[in-house]
Amino acid sequence: MSDYMSRIAEKGQLVVLAGPNDGSKNQIAKAYMEDHPNAVRCTTVTTREKREDETDGVEHWFLSVTEFDRLVRTQQLLTYSYTNRNGYGTTRKAVEEARRAGHNVILVTDAFDALKIKTTHPEATIIFMLAPSWEVLESRLRAKNAKLSEEEIQDILEEAREEILCAGQFDYVLIHDVLEDTVRRLSQIVHGNRYSRNSMKGFVESYIESEISSEIVDMF
């Protein structure tokens, strides 16, 4: 690999998949990573009890409520949420370590957390995942939450509407119709973004410092 290609590849991208929680995001992330071994999802931390067949540091890092709250208070979590009174989060440290190792980090979250991540990590690529129609989205949401009451499902549908209203603030909107086609389009976005202004910012800055600045110094 040439020197400049090595420098470009030094740090991996941060790619955030967001949108209504109809099960599509995790499905797409899993399929994408199967095709792209360089892409990873960081092991999350959680306050829920560890199951017998789980290993600390594999499925999750299992923390006490006190430990999790400390991470929240000290802003060590890039993103976090609560489900059934259990906390789940991804640490900033894990994301940065993976990126420094050259991995593209895939995060799956809701629209509001994705927009927050964009404010602290403007180089991140945030992608809004959307079903091809509201009817398809509602069908997926109902199937995923079949055990919930109609009132609870209506709350979920309202949350989906609120998230869709944020779609225009994302870098990309990706329609999830056929899984293979969606994964292919995601691959095109990630590959193309490797050479975007934000992704190349570090390379350009180092180029100016090492190449152009040295030329100026040599003139005196």
Describe this structure in words.
Helices cover 50% and strands 19% of the residues. It has 220 residues and is of the alpha/beta class. A 5-stranded parallel sheet has the order 2-7-1-8-9, sandwiched between helices. Strand 5 (77-83) and strand 6 form a beta hairpin. The two termini are 34 Å apart.
List the helices and strands and how they pair.
Elements: H1 3-8, E1 14-18, H2 24-35, E2 39-40, E3 44-46, E4 60-62, H3 65-73, E5 77-83, E6 86-91, H4 92-100, E7 104-108, H5 111-120, E8 125-130, H6 134-144, H7 150-164, E9 172-175, H8 179-193, H9 197-218
Distance between the termini: 34 Å
Gross CATH architecture of the largest domain: 3-Layer(aba) Sandwich
Main sheet strand line-up: 2-7-1-8-9
| Overall average pLDDT | 87
What is the CATH superfamily label of the largest domain?
P-loop containing nucleotide triphosphate hydrolases
Tell me the domain tally. Answer: 2
From the spread of the alpha carbons, the general shape counts as: globular
- Largest sheet entry: 5 strands, parallel
Strand content: 15-25%
Q: What is the number of strand segments?
A: 9
Helical segment tally? 9
- In terms of per-residue confidence, which ranges show pLDDT below 50 for 5 or more consecutive residues? none
Write a short abstract of this structure.
The chain is α/β, with parallel strands linked by helices.
Keywords:
single chain, 220 residues, alpha/beta, Rossmann fold, Guanylate Kinase phosphate binding domain, 2 domains, 5-stranded parallel beta sheet, 4-stranded mixed beta sheet, 9 strands, 19% strand, globular
